[in-house]
Structures are given as C-alpha cells and as structure tokens.
Amino acid sequence: MVATGGDNFVGGGDFDDTLAGAIFERFLADAGIEEMEPSPQQVARLREVAELCKRALSVQTEFDVRLPEFSREPRRDLFVTVTREELEAWTRPLVERTLTIARGVLLSASILPEEIDDVVLVGGTTRIPAVRRAVAELFGRRPSQRINPDEAVALGAALLGHEIAGGGPVLLDLLPMTVGHALDGRRFEPVVKRSARLPCDEVLTLTADAGGLVQLPLFQGESPDVAQDEYLCTVVVEDARLGGGERAQVRLSFDEHCVMAVDAFHERSGAPLALRLDRERPLEEILAALGAFDGPDRGATWQLPETRISKVLGKLFGWLR
To answer: What angle do CA 88, 90, 92 make, to 5 degrees?
Structure first.
C-alpha cells in the first residue's frame, strides 16, 4: 500500500440518512404539515425504507416508498415516489466528497488517475449508477466488476486472517486517518498522521493537574476542528504520584493491523501508570469544555445537511453533526 484516505462521515449510512431526510420533507409537504419532529421510531422506519429505496434505484428508475400509519396526530400514511434522478441530486455532495478523497489519495502518492491499472469498488453503495459513473470519469476507465462489492471486505478480512496465521504474504498497511488529541479552542493536534507506515508509535508528555489527573481526548480525522472529526475516547490517567506538577508520558501504539494500544508511564521514574479509556462522557460536554473553534480554517469540511432527521439522529447517537 502506498497511500490511503477516507472520511468517517461519508458512507452508505450517510446516503441513507440524506435520502430519509428528503423523503420526510416530501411527506410533510404533501401532507400539508408545517412542523413535525420525527420520533426515534419514525426515524428508524425512514432509515430502513431509505436503504430499500437506494438499493431499488440502483436497478430501476423510480421507487414507491410506503409507510402505513406513519404519523398518528394527524393520522397519515407516508406515500412518496422517488426517482433515480432525485436520488442523484440529493446525494451529489456525497459523491463529490468521495471524489475529493480519491484525488487526495492519488496526490499524496504522486500518481495520476491514468496511471492506475485497475479500480475495484467496495461496498454495496458503489452499485449506485451515479457512483460508478463518477469513478469512471475520474479514472478514465470503467471500474472492475470481477469482485462482488458486497463480499470485497470479507475477502480482505480472510486474506488478513491468513496472513496473521502465517500462511500468506505480509500486507504492508498504512494508517488510514490521522489520530490526534483535542486542545483548547477545539483545535486538533495530530499525533500519528495519515499514511504513517505500520507498525508505529508516538509518545506524548503531559502535565497532570494538582490532583494527579491527566485527560487526553483522542479523535481521528483530518479537520483542524475536532468537532468535525470522529471522537475515539478519552485517555484518563490518575495517580497520586503525578500530583504537584509531575508529568506522565502517554504512548499510542499501532500494530501492523492498525490496532491501537495505549499505555502510560511516569516521566521521571519510568514507572507504569494505570489508565482507562473513557467513552461514557457525552461528546457534547467534551466539545463544550474545549470552547469555540479558534484555529485556522484549512478548507470546508462536508457535513450531513441539517434536516429534522439529522437533528434527531444527532440526539440519538451524539456523533452525527
């Protein structure tokens, strides 16, 4: 592997959520309902039917979305006809975002699109005609269809398992996304950068507070604003030996399979320190404590269009912004 890239907020689920939001807005307009906050149950039904609609429109030009008794007050059935053309218009920003990622990967490897010998699509969403057309236009050739996109990840996992068992060639991997920590002002400080050769490790030296506590919120992504990156966890080190301004060293290690391990040491003595990885604290609280973003704007980061659906999803899952 010579380069890698990605975006945790651009995938099949994002296509589903965008489509679900558009279907819901169409339902409100057709039913003459001005305001309605969808319940979690309604969101779940919309996401399920949106995925069915997305799949159907990969092989046909229109699809009838039906959800009986979708709302009770007022009592309404949801019936919306969605065309492939509408789906492509609603999800065009997502397709364009994937092309931006692909161009960035090629640029980081100093490779031109026409120098690529073969293009393999992975994941069911790559069956969408608009995605296939966009890939063909970027690379100047039709993507290969010799591998089932639904099975490609499983095949890769099987190859990796064979490698781990010692029965096959070693696959040299790269870190797919930058891993870093949050600073005041919601700034993202990279620790291990994207495309770092694996295995690798980095050590951070941090000063404890008066009570001997060190907290390190970890994120992965490429945005300078941590609110636009994916929250991983908060490394918490608490030890009486760190009181009075002592410092701890926190080491992030990535093995050849991109599995991250975290350990900590007392800087002065080198003694190991106990730590825990906290994911219980709500992300909203962490971001609020960091304050408003005060770093440089290195370009716009794509976000899921804010609809009634995305607002409810944000409340349910915390990470969707």
So the answer is: 60
Strand partners, 81: 64
Q: pLDDT tens, position by position, for the chain (321 residues)?
A: 677 777 777 889 999 999 999 999 999 999 888 888 889 999 999 999 999 999 999 999 999 999 999 998 888 999 999 999 999 999 999 999 999 989 988 988 899 999 999 999 988 899 999 999 999 999 999 998 888 888 888 888 887 787 777 766 666 678 888 999 999 999 999 999 988 989 999 999 999 999 999 999 999 998 999 998 999 999 999 999 998 889 999 999 999 878 999 999 999 999 999 999 999 999 999 999 999 998 876 544 445 556 666 655 554 444 343
What is the number of other CB atoms lying within 10 angstroms of the CB of residue 18? 23
Q: Which among 188, 196, 205 is positioned nearest to 254, based on CA atoms?
A: 196
Euclidean distance between CA atoms 40 and 83, whole angstroms? 26
The beta strand positions in the chain, using DSSP E, are 62-72, 75-83, 179-183, 187-192, 200-207, 213-220, 230-238, 247-254, 260-266, 272-273, 275-278
DSSP string, 110-151: T--GGG-S--B--SGGGGSHHHHHHHHHHHTSPPB-SS-TTT
Query: Cβ contacts of residue 305 below 8 Å, gap of 6+?
Result: 18, 21, 93
Q: Closest Cα to residue 148, out of 120, 183, 116, 184? A: 120
Which distant-in-sequence residues (6+ apart) come within 8 Å of 94 by Cβ?
Answer: 10, 14, 15, 18, 302
